[in-house]
Amino acid sequence: MSKPIHVINGPNLNRLGLREPEIYGYTTLAEVESICRDSCGEFELVFRQSNSEAELIEWIHEAIDNSSGILINPAAFTFTSMAIMDALKMYPFPIIEFHISNIHKREPMYHNSLISPIATAVMAGTGAPGYGYAVRLLRDMITDRA
């Protein structure tokens, strides 16, 4: 059996469904987790969220040793965290950077991702249901590598 897929969510995503629903919709993080679990097929899923940069980095380090792929929504850390970028640089398997909103249609401060240059793929603007697409894509990437 393959190692699990890790879905890692950054700051403020615990407020999904309440926070700026005109941008992020009304889907809660619990519902996002359910979408991901329904999409992971035969893979085990490790689903996490933190508002702490240090905790996100620890989870990436854990994934380096014990996962088949990472789906990460770094949220605001996308644009500010060289530490998360550096941790992901060490990851030898597929990485999908994911954003609920289309960051390229938003204000200019959201246009320069530090994560995109090292991600295997980037998905943005598909809303919360896009997590399911991203997990299925990651699953296919892992299977194709095997």
TrEMBL record:
GO terms for molecular function: 3-dehydroquinate dehydratase activity. It catalyses: 3-dehydroquinate = 3-dehydroshikimate + H2O. Pathway: Metabolic intermediate biosynthesis; chorismate biosynthesis; chorismate from D-erythrose 4-phosphate and phosphoenolpyruvate: step 3/7. Belongs to the type-II 3-dehydroquinase family. CDD domains: DHQase_II. The active site is at Y24 (proton acceptor), H99 (proton donor). Keywords: Amino-acid biosynthesis, Aromatic amino acid biosynthesis, Lyase. NCBIfam families: PRK05395.1-2, PRK05395.1-3, PRK05395.1-4. Homododecamer. It comes from Halomonas huangheensis. Coiled coil: none annotated. Catalyzes a trans-dehydration via an enolate intermediate. This is 3-dehydroquinate dehydratase. It holds the Pfam family DHquinase_II. HAMAP family: AroQ (MF_00169). GO terms for biological process: amino acid biosynthetic process; aromatic amino acid family biosynthetic process; chorismate biosynthetic process; quinate catabolic process. The record marks R19 as: Transition state stabilizer. Substrate binds at N73, D86, I100, S101. The keyword Lyase applies. It is an enzyme of class 4 (lyase).
